[in-house]
Amino acid sequence: MKRTASALVIPLIVLLLLPQSLFCARIPGEAPRETGGSADSLSLHAEPDTSLALRIVETPIRFGSLDLREPTAVAVDFRGNVYVADAMAGKVFRYAPDGASLEFGRPPNGAAFYPIDVAVLESFVLVLDYSGNRLLRYDAMGAYLDVLIAFDQFDRVRPVSVTAGTGGSLITADVTSHTVVLWTPLFDLELTIGEFGWGAGRFNEPRKGAFLAGRGIVVVESGNRRLQFFSPSGRYERTAEPPAAVPFVSPRSVCVDPAGVIFVCDPESGRISAFSAGGTYITAVDAFAGNAIAPAAAAVGWDGKLYVADLKSRSVLVYRLNSSRDK
Fold it and tell me: Model's pTM, two decimal places?
């Protein structure tokens, strides 16, 4: 993809006219089901197998119930601080492990601010501002620092998500061009994957990518309702989906824990689905404290907890992860 200069400023009214499904999820009305389960198969729709088990256990911890209106993204740093992007309110919050909250400063110049994703890169917090088509950098205390990437300088790049990896690499996903872009630690465009379509290696509304062990990439698509796996060079490798009994409806976020377990948030189905690093469906969770959820995004902390931005409760829910593999 070649770079081009552009001075185009997209009016805020364009954002308001975009399909609501780009940012907001319809809250499902299905009743809670029992959580837990296990499976082990590399087919697209995995069959149960008790050799792999993962329990996603509720904790009594919840963040942001007094602050948040539309939590669309969540990230966690190594100190246990939780960062949340609230698209509807145009705000970003930090929650300390003890629950103390801090609101980030708005970017300067009074420009429209629509934060739809957040990521932690070393000691910095990155905020994806959709209205300005730019990636902003903050310090951990919420002070605005600079514009890390102005995406308008690139040809047809308008991402809806950002993921930070070790070493400083980034992944962005773009539902307009149906592509996923890998960025170097110097924030240059390194690799573009995909184009619109339904076949292997093609995308229909790719919503978010995540790094796997070995620098491979996994991408979740809302339109094709699946996960696709790619090598570090962008070569398509395989596809994964949950079993037909618990299908994706409109998955919009994916994250990977240090052990390689993949978590997919699907607010319209009201489920968080878990897969092994190879694409094996493991289990799903669809409730918190007996109530249905609408998970928009999730992040795994170094403390072994899963932090979930929940549209239904307008808060960040916290689960504990317990996994084991039979010998």
Answer: 0.84
